Amino acid sequence: MRILTLLIAGLIGAAVLPGTAHAAPVPTGKAALTKNPLYKTGEFDWTECKELDRRPDNLDTYRIYLDHLLDCLNRSWGEEFKQAGLPFSKPTVRYITKSVATGCGKYPINYAAGLYCPANKTMWVAISKWQLADPTEFTLFNVIAHEYGHYAQHRAGILGQAMRMQKKASKAKQYAIQRQVELQAECFASAFIGSVWHSLGRDQFDYEDLMDMTIGDVLHGKTKNIHYWMKRGWNGNGPKACNTFIAPARLLT
After folding, report:
1. Number of domains in the chain
2. In terms of pTM, does the model score above 0.85?
3. The sheet that has 114-117: what strands, in order across it?
4. Residue 173 to residue 118: CA distance in whole angstroms
5. Does the residue 17 lie in any domain?
């Protein structure tokens, strides 16, 4: 569901969204991480994003479902970037069911449900057999929202600066920076999900089940910290709640 920023990267659409023609330059340096303009924007708009129906083992209905979700993400994140005064365009997304070359190496189909490739600015999303068999599951929705969070980080200058810092860091520090990136993307995802939850027709248990299925590791943080940032995003409703680069170390392990 995430990226390894030293190894993994994804394509970006060329069309710039309305309102970004005179956007400010993307920030660089440490300020891109700690004082990014995204943190000064408001909450995500309280928009409608009804989940479309999926049919078991029908890949076309899953693609339509995900395309609709991406339209919602484009609207919500486009508005945040407009408020931040940053340039923005829609990402390119590829749906796959088997391992393929991504531009950042071969997709680790047995490891990741999704990844974002900075090298070609593309989101890669794996639709698994068990997801195809269960059109009511919610993890796929979260995967898209999480990988879009990485795309937003890239567009805002966060991901590029984090990767530059990793190149000069010890292995332990590389992992620490990676956790800040991943936990922020998780927070971004939950902020978006919270903003559209009223329109999904979902029960609160669906989100609690999603949290129960989210397990941590050395690159993504401990399970309790992932849950902390998911809840923080949900309650904060916007990027401003997700500044992992100034958070206490105990929330980033």
Report:
1. 1
2. yes
3. 12-16, 89-96, 122-126, 114-117
4. 20
5. no
